[in-house]
Amino acid sequence: MAEAMSDSRHMARAIALATAQLGRTVPNPPVGCVIVRDGVVIAEAATGDGGRPHAEEAALAQLDNRADGATAYVTLEPCGARSHGGLSCSQRLVEAGVIRVVFACHDPSPYASHLGIARMTEAGLTVETGLMADEAASLIADFVNNLPVKP
């Protein structure tokens, strides 16, 4: 029960971080990320202005990309591929040593949905979805409405 309460508290913080970036992250959605180890927040970030860096990338940068044994709380499924190349957020989390990822809602992009979760589970991370999904989904409504349709 205590872990579930902590999970909700950390996800609520991630949602607050994303909310603060509403309207500033186009063409990407606003995303919040909180990284916790042993019950202590060790890094937090939101998607940067103009959509870069992604929230996970910015949070991990605060830790010199090392988060051994940590849990990441993210409002949106960490990306499984990057349009400009480079490491995806899911790969960054794997390489940083994160062992558990809790994200609120799946990436709605027809090009990205479920790629992040697949990459993380294949690497052995514990991945949990759906925590505060409605709240997180409300933050990306404009992004969803402007998504291209996959041919």
Folded structure, characterized:
The chain is α/β, with parallel strands linked by helices and 151 residues long. The chain has one domain: Cytidine Deaminase, domain 2 (3-Layer(aba) Sandwich). The chain is built from 6 helices and 5 strands, in the order αββαβαβαβαα. It has a 5-stranded mixed beta sheet, sandwiched between helices. Helix 4 links the parallel strand 4 and strand 5. Helix 3 runs parallel beside helix 4. The model has no long low-confidence stretch (mean pLDDT 92).
Low-confidence stretches: none
Structural class: alpha/beta
**Portion in strands:** 15-25%
Helix/strand order: HEEHEHEHEHH
Radius of gyration: 14 Å
Number of domains: 1
Topology readout:
Blueprint: H1 2-19, E1 32-37, E2 40-46, H2 55-61, E3 71-76, H3 89-96, E4 100-105, H4 115-122, E5 126-129, H5 133-139, H6 141-145
Parallel strand pairs: 3-4, 4-5
Antiparallel strand pairs: 1-2, 1-3
Helix pairs in contact: 3-4
List keywords for this structure.
about 150 residues; 5-stranded mixed sheet; single chain; 6 helices; Cytidine Deaminase, domain 2; alpha/beta
In short:
The protein contains 6 helices and 5 strands. The chain has 151 residues and is an alpha/beta fold.
